[in-house]
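not sure who needs this but someone in the group chat was asking about CALB2 protein from Aegotheles bennettii so here u go. i didnt clean anything up, its just raw.
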Amino acid sequence: QAWRKYDTDRSGYIEANELKGFLSDLLKKANRPYDEAKLQEYTQTILRMFDMNGDGKLCLSEMSRLLPVQENFLLKFQGMKLSSEEFNAIFAFYDKDGNGFIDENELDALLKDLSEKNKKEMTIQQLTNYRKSIMNLSDGGKLYRKELELVLC
């Protein structure tokens, strides 16, 4: 939900101006006073700390490091590198009905297989939590290629 809210241009990245909006909302929620200079300083600090590839923006996996560990489902699959062909094959395989998107049932199968592939045991509750987190990126319960690509790649 946070990703969809703050990636206002739907570029797949949180740029500095979008990160400022995120930090501004966080500071307001915490009742912390700030001015524009402080907000700019915080934004640059966060980028230095979390922008692992130095491109001046945060991708989903970089942004996920700002979230509490128990919600950070992306780190479960850290280190998985997929080529474009592998990603397309995965999407086609799990889009069982061929309708062009992954629904919740198809996503359950994908998550279960991913956890087994990476030799990580996943309880039903964890599976449910991961599915819910990922489906928050979806467009009305339909996880299209772009959203799945954000999660896997």
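also The first helix runs from residue 2 to 6. if thats useful
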